[in-house]
């Protein structure tokens, strides 16, 4: 089976397994997803979803957050870890949104990459979830699973994984596919325990099982 055919089969099976999979960060505005994805670095989405409630209660708009002192932001987001650098990036990012983009998140991948604290993973998440554009989010679950399944061969660098997946994943499927990998990675193809291959919907086509 070619990698492209394997990818299509994996996509269809994960669709059946996780039909409603979506972003596990809570947000109702694009800028809030931008904040949450920065806080999610080395932190669980569940914790981020709790912490941002206090952040948005105090700073409910881009303008309010842009006007806040980084130290005040840090006091609230500290439970997410790396509080100082995350607060600094959030503060700088909101100032740019306010001053350059009229408080809106730009609908442009390269413009997103120029925002403080925004890398390819974050930019792809915004493009896919907020704007409905083709996107591939290479988080730790994605990288682990596509290597195990055999969609990529021993590639761990996020950008290289992303580039390989673009070759075999239909653009309209990329964003949802990556969300489903997160669900599957948490529930079945786990990192901290032995993966539960016996209950995996991909077991018969997975490279790990064929080795």
Automatic annotation (TrEMBL):
Q: Where is the HhH-GPD domain?
A: 39-187
What keywords would UniProt list here? Answer: 4Fe-4S, DNA damage, DNA repair, DNA-binding, Endonuclease, Glycosidase, Hydrolase, Iron, Iron-sulfur, Lyase, Metal-binding, Nuclease
Q: Which Pfam families match?
A: HHH, HhH-GPD
User: Which GO BP terms apply?
Assistant: base-excision repair, AP site formation
Which InterPro entries would you find in this protein's record?
DNA_glycosylase, Endonuclease-III-like_CS2, HhH-GPD_domain, HhH_base_excis_C, HhH_motif, Nth
The GO terms this record gives for MF are:
4 iron, 4 sulfur cluster binding; class I DNA-(apurinic or apyrimidinic site) endonuclease activity; DNA binding; DNA N-glycosylase activity; metal ion binding
**What EC number(s) is this enzyme filed under?**
4.2.99.18
Cofactor annotation remark:
Binds 1 [4Fe-4S] cluster.
Name the PROSITE patterns for this protein. ENDONUCLEASE_III_2
What this protein needs as a cofactor is: [4Fe-4S] cluster
Q: Which domain of life is it from?
A: Bacteria
UniProt catalytic activity: 2'-deoxyribonucleotide-(2'-deoxyribose 5'-phosphate)-2'-deoxyribonucleotide-DNA = a 3'-end 2'-deoxyribonucleotide-(2,3-dehydro-2,3-deoxyribose 5'-phosphate)-DNA + a 5'-end 5'-phospho-2'-deoxyribonucleoside-DNA + H(+)
Q: Does the keyword Repressor apply?
A: no
Protein task = DNA repair enzyme that has both DNA N-glycosylase activity and AP-lyase activity. The DNA N-glycosylase activity releases various damaged pyrimidines from DNA by cleaving the N-glycosidic bond, leaving an AP (apurinic/apyrimidinic) site. The AP-lyase activity cleaves the phosphodiester bond 3' to the AP site by a beta-elimination, leaving a 3'-terminal unsaturated sugar and a product with a terminal 5'-phosphate.
Q: Which family does it belong to?
A: Belongs to the Nth/MutY family.
Q: Report the protein name in the record.
A: Endonuclease III
Which organism's genome codes for this protein?
Mediterraneibacter hominis
Highest classification ranks of the organism: Bacteria, Bacillati, Bacillota, Clostridia, Lachnospirales
């Amino acid at each position: 089976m070619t990698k492209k055919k394997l990818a299509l089969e994996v996509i269809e099976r994960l669709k059946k397994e996780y039909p409603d999979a979506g972003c596990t960060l809570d947000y109702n505005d694009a800028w809030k997803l931008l904040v949450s994805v920065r806080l999610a670095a080395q932190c669980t989405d569940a914790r981020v979803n709790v912490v941002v409630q206090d952040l948005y209660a105090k700073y409910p708009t881009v303008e309010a957050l842009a006007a806040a002192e980084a130290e005040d932001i840090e006091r609230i987001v500290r439970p997410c870890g790396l509080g100082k650098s995350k607060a600094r990036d959030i503060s700088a990012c909101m100032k740019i949104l306010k001053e350059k983009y009229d408080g809106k998140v730009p609908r442009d991948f390269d413009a997103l990459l120029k925002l403080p604290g925004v890398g390819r993973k974050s930019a792809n998440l915004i493009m896919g979830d907020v704007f409905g554009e083709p996107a591939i989010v290479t988080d730790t679950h994605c990288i682990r699973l596509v290597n195990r399944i055999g969609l990529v061969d021993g590639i761990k660098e996020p950008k290289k994984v992303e580039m390989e997946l673009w070759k075999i994943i239909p653009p309209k499927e990329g964003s949802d596919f990556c969300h489903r990998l997160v669900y599957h990675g948490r529930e079945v193809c786990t990192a901290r325990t032995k993966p539960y291959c016996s209950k995996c919907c991909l077991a018969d086509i997975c490279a790990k099982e064929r080795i």
